[in-house]
Amino acid sequence: MKSVSQVLFPVRVDGAATLSPDEPFSILEHHVRFGIGRIALVGMTLAGAGLVALTAAPEIEGEPKQDFRSLMAERSKTDEERPGPKEFYFTRGVYSSPWRWNSWAIDFPKADRQFMAAVNTLVDINVADHENAIRLDDPDLRRFPFLYILEIEGMLLTQAEVTGLRDYLLAGGFLVVDDFWGEWAYANLEQEMRRVIPEYSIVEIPSNHPIFNTVYRIEEIIQVPAIGRYYGGVTTECYGCDAFTSGIFDDEGRLMVVINGNTDLGDAWEWFERPEYPLQFSSFAVQMGVNFIVYAMSH
Amino acid sequence: MLGSLFEFLFKYRPLIFQQGDFAFRGSSLGYLALVVAAVAAFLTLRTYTKVRGNSQPLDRTILTAIRLGALGVIALCLLRPVLVLSLVVPQENFLGVLIDDSKSMQIADIDDTQRFEFVHSTFADTESEILATLADRFALRFFRFSSGIDRVGEVSELTYEGTRTHLGQALERAHEELSGVPLSGLIVVTDGADNALQGLGEALLPLQASGVPVFPVGLGRERFDRDIQMSRVETPRRVLKGTSLAVELVVTHRGYQGETVSVQVEDEGRIVGTKDVRLPADGQPQTVRIRFTASERGPRLFRFRVSPRQDEMVIQNNVREALIVVEDRREKILYFEGEPRWEVKYMLRAVEDDENLQVVLLQRTAENKFLRRNVDGPDELVGGFPRTRSELYEYRGLVLGSIEAGYFTPDQLRMIADFVNHRGGGLLMLGSHRSFAKGGYVGTPVAEVLPVVLEPVSADSGENFFAEVSVVTSRAGASHASTLIAETEAASVERWRTLPPVTIVNPITEVKPGATTLLRTPEGLIVLAFQRYGAGKSMAFPVQDSWMWQMHADVPVDDMTHETFWRRILRWLIADVPDQVVASVNQDRVDPNELVTVLAEVGDDNYEELNNSAVVAIVTDPSGDLVELPMEWTAERDGEYRTTFTAGEQGFYEVRVEASVGDEFLGEDAVYVQVASSDTEFYDSTMRLPLLTRLAEETGGRLYTPATVNELPDDIQYVGGGVTVIEDRELWDMPVLLLLLVSLVLGEWGYRRFRGLA
Asked: Does the pTM exceed 0.90?
């Protein structure tokens, strides 16, 4: 595996060989286990990747690209290795939130770009290094089978968005929900998802589910704080609540929605280049994100 | 009419002249008369030369010729010409009468009476003049024949229930049986609807050598007025459960041009497919492709039927049966993908519900890092892509995604080619930046196997190629099993035309000779092509995002086109892929008590043929009783073993073949044989005049029909072999000679009158 630590920081990862032949979904070479000794190294890696991303990234644009063809044409021009569209676009869902203006755009686009820079280095995916936001009622939504939304406590979908997201999920799209805190936000998510796919419920994802070891082995769900909160000395925004990862499975038992509650993976992606941001959080967030992507693309 | 006129003029029938030798039997008085005639001729010539009168030279020439002609006729008669004939001696010779006892003799096409009724009236009726004459002259020996031949005392013993007609074999056996007696010939009463696998040639050699003529009596019509026949059905012998089959049928007919008939497929009585067919011109075969799904496991008897018409002459030939073994097992396909791609996700989802396909995924997620899915156990593919043939050959199909040739060792590339060529597996390469020419496959063994021509890429030619394309079917793709994505061919073609565009980065425009293009773009890019290579087959699908057929906004959420396409293509890819042990039978449908030959091909885990393995065939009859038969190496082909058994009971026989070497079990395979009375006789059951003519001509006999059969007893006297006697037949008193003489005399008189020379 072309890991960040090997590319940017050629330092040996202690005890990395953890081949587990009795796992049907095991990874053949190295699992980077989550531990104190390695956090620093992975963190340094991510910080390096972040710097690379920031250096390379163009100016942040205020409005998301929503026209697929112009987006593709623009991307094609910048890619000298592979003509045509990229295989993977980190796509952010633009949803209606009348009580909280533009909540879909939290951490946008820096988190998206930094995270893609890390993904581009860690796994062999032909990723677009640009942000890609698209409305849930846009017909082109289904061209991007990976969708990320966050801060959904104010989300109130229009009927067109409900239909768009429903078709997206039933056709085979994969949704990651992130960065919401507390029971009220969860209740809002649950209510909106009931509008979208009422026949399915949100359930806990078992710890042995393949999504936790598709690339990296995740042994514990930790709470990732927003950077501002962490400066205040806490990881939570809902006082006493624990981070959780739940999901929605379809009739075939396939995971179509992953919900990261009481945690903020996006903030970790956005700020992992900051030396003061704890590496254990950014490492965890990137590993989870990589697992989500590879899982979505192979399951 | 002509025959009667000939006989009136020449005194005898043409056959007598054909058989006899011409000779003169003149006496000394006759020769003296001949001298007188010669003198008369000389005088005539001299007189006409000297005496001029008022005649012209032309008149004298004509009159001389007429006079000489008349003298010539008289001279011929004085020489007493005869035909020397060899006649069989009455009651000293035997005559074999072979009567067709097969089902086709039940067909009522002779003035609405059944063919066998002629047999009864001619050869069984004691009042039959023909039979009486024959019996007077010959010692008759009757035989009945169909798939075998038996002596019968009386023709009334025949049942006309034989399920096959083996004409050559019948002649051979009858000749053998009568070889110790003087044999004048063999009469064969049949429609000639021979359906033996071997031709007549060898059977005729002994008859020709011993001079035994054959006298076929052809029954039935050469052409039916009104009939529809299911002429041919081609089905695979075994398929996976749930496979959608596109089976080709050939329907022929006479008398129903332009009418529409319904063709149906029944799976053990349940209609599983139907199609309306408009019939073409008389005698022109109509090919029909009909689709149905093999949904029930086990040996299944499928019936393909054309709805019969009320006025059809033969309705038994409207249906054909085919035995298809529907296997309910999971077939393993290895999908090796070089990077995370959406194509992986959606292809696996498409076939996820297919219980008979197990797509094992080996996906490189980063350098030397792999993800496995759908493996059978922790050890499967634990070392990455297979490094030995035996490991790779466990799969029946191999899909190469975005994986560059440089990933493989030279031996692995050769191994992939051998997987197709030698093991008989199916290979599919998908489009991507790391496949085909872009993936560095040009000049590799894998490129040899692929059905498309790979050109080296450069910056100018294809390196930066990218195209968004729509897909259309080729002529072959419109009806091919792997590309039928809708209920009917027309709907399938239309669906392909309306599917959302996909993208291609591999500019491939040419297929290899012998390869078939199934899908292409309007601009000429190849989208899907296949070829058979060695024992297996390969496919090229240079599209990199077929998942758009699932995820594009224009595709309804519940649309199953993408799923159907991948299921079809993967099932077709692994159809007919052999195992280490492959059993087969010479016929999967036999008549009761017919001999069945079982063959087995045995190989080791590298599919190298083995001649030293222990192979047994376990035969289970319809009652459930088992018989274990050892199979011997045939010594004709490496790895081929054979045994035979007689299937006596009606129903399905299961033949399970097991092979092992020492303690190592190599594998097993099962085939099925249906034992049932067949209706083969009703197909192509018109009288085969060419075959019967050949039979007569090559043996020196004559062909008869019910209209001419009354000549048979007399003809055999002259044509037949056995104990014979030489006889002369006088020719001087043929009416034609008298008529000629009178004509010449009257002609001379008339000419003189006409010219004023009298």
From this structure: no
